[in-house]
Specification:
Layout lengths: L4 H14 L5 E6 L6 H9 L4 E5 L5 H12 L4 E7 H4 L3 H7 L3 E5 L10 H12 L2 E5 L11 H8 L8 H8 E7 L6 E8 L2 H9 L16 E8 L3 H19 L6 H15 L2 E2 L16 E2 L3 H15 L4 E5 L2 H15 L4 E4 L5 H13 L5 E5 H4 L10 E4 L6 H8 L11 E8 L3 H10 L4 H12 L3
Parallel strand pairs: 1-3, 1-4, 2-3, 4-5, 8-15, 11-13, 11-14, 12-13, 14-15
Antiparallel strand pairs: 6-7, 9-10
Helix pairs in contact: 1-2, 6-7, 10-11, 11-18, 12-13
Length: 451
């Protein structure tokens, strides 16, 4: 991340368009990355373009978005996620993109998956193909095959079994639960040849080689609330505006209280009012309403942990911390996770930090941003995920410094998980401009609640 993959892709697409070689581009990316691409083109493109993420719910709405894009001028860029591309393979082929880009192409490492097969078919039809990834190999050298089936099947051939026989040592084992025999990879061979072939059409750059790379890199990843959660979010917005407009004077605390409720929904929870519902057992209780951000976190964390990295996660609310802990325990086991929140006593906090810094098996550190964003060193990781944020710029900056401090030898990467079109984005924007949300809410509360 941060070495210029997106910029390169935009430049390649632009050059081909200006040379009149292409008119349509299809970008296939993880769902969380799809909303990023319009921003990348807006930042880098010096040519006319229209970018349309196909993120509407339901196949018919996505097809309508694609039809609308076809009527636009300039370079037409459709962006769709991997889970949808195989479901709409026929429509994607009929649209006839001349350039197909697979972003985070490690998602194609399983050549037997539906999305890999769909992408291979789209690749055969397209005149130009491009893959972008920071982790082409996450589990084994055999991960190359599925990606190159899309990019250029001539490099490794069309047979997965021939490819595996050439580069892997296999043996037969028995699944004792089913009694069936299966093939297991025991080791690898001919790896110099594999690397040479892979790099024959690849360009690789590392953070160390990117001499002008900043010491800290930020990326935003997006998810969308499910229909029920989105409806509750919009209703809460309308109620908040009505309540605030009825007050004789609006204070920062009035606004922040309502923003907090919206932030809770973004994290997956809602707390129904007690007033008027005293007989309802759910009144006043925190209730789950969404799993969108938890799923985004699970996908993001799995990708990072597969690289062998350690990971720090910051979140604001206790319920979110428990969701994060449950997800990480399922990924790396309970012994690989440490957590600090307001309930953890001082001595236990110090031990948790020491475990993370010194024990290789402790891979993840979860921190409540208000509690553990100050005074601790977590330089065993160079990557932090912000599951949610509070409204304090000071807390945000202090938490960033947990991994970016003396002892850190690598460029630090910060991943921000945001619900698209929500208060998440407003808080992120305020903090990026080094402002406390509390300092701007009084004059801009209608703007903050308008979406």
């Amino acid at each position: 991340m941060g070495c210029g993959k997106s910029l390169t892709a935009v430049a390649v697409a632009g050059r081909l368009y200006l040379d009149k070689r292409i008119r349509r581009v299809l970008i296939v990316a993880p769902l969380a990355v799809c909303p990023v691409w319009p921003r990348e083109f807006a930042d880098y493109a010096g040519f006319p373009f229209t970018v349309q993420p196909l993120t509407a719910s339901g196949a018919k709405k996505k097809i309508a978005q694609l039809a609308q894009l076809s009527e636009s001028s300039g370079l037409q860029v459709a962006v769709i996620n991997y889970e949808s591309v195989w479901r709409l393979q026929e429509q994607m082929e009929a649209w006839k993109p001349e350039l197909v880009i697979a972003d985070e192409s490690q998602r194609l490492k399983d050549p037997q998956s539906r999305q890999s097969k769909a992408m291979a078919a789209l690749g055969k039809q397209a005149k130009y193909r491009l893959i972008l990834t920071g982790t082409p190999v996450s589990n084994s050298p055999l991960d190359f095959f599925g990606q190159y089936q899309f990019l250029d099947p001539q490099i490794f051939g069309n047979s997965w079994y021939s490819f595996r026989a050439r580069y892997a040592v296999t043996g037969s084992e028995v699944n004792h639960s089913t009694g069936k025999t299966y093939t297991k990879v025991l080791g690898y061979r001919n790896l110099p040849e594999l690397v040479e072939k892979a790099h024959s059409v690849a360009y690789r750059i590392t953070k160390k080689q990117a001499l002008d790379l900043p010491e800290q890199l930020d990326q935003k990843l997006y998810c969308q609330l499910e229909p029920e959660a989105l409806s509750a979010y919009r209703q809460l917005q309308r109620n908040a505006i009505a309540e605030l407009e009825g007050l004789p004077a609006v204070t920062a605390q009035h606004v922040i209280t309502r923003l907090l409720r919206l932030s809770q929904i973004c994290g997956g929870y809602i707390r129904p009012d007690i007033d008027g519902y005293e007989d309802d057992p759910a009144a006043g209780q925190l209730t789950r309403i969404s799993r969108a951000k938890q799923k985004l976190f699970a996908d993001t964390a799995a990708d990072i942990l597969e690289q062998g990295k350690k990971l720090v996660i910051f979140a604001r609310f206790t319920a979110e911390l428990r969701d994060i802990e449950d997800t990480l325990r399922s990924l790396i086991g309970p012994d690989g996770v440490r957590l600090i929140d307001g309930s953890v006593p001082g001595p236990a906090r110090g031990q948790a930090v020491e475990d993370f810094q010194k024990k290789p098996e402790v891979r993840a550190f979860i921190a409540q941003i208000q509690t553990a964003g100050l005074g601790i060193t977590l330089t065993a990781a160079d990557t932090a995920i912000y599951y949610s944020l509070d409204y304090s710029y000071a807390n945000y900056e202090q938490s960033r410094a947990r991994i970016h401090r003396i002892g850190q030898k690598n460029t630090c990467t910060y991943l921000h998980l945001l619900v698209e079109g929500s208060v998440d984005e407003d808080i992120m924007t305020a903090l990026q401009f080094k402002g406390n949300v509390a300092d701007i809410v009084v004059n801009r509360w209608r703007e903050l609640l308008k979406k």
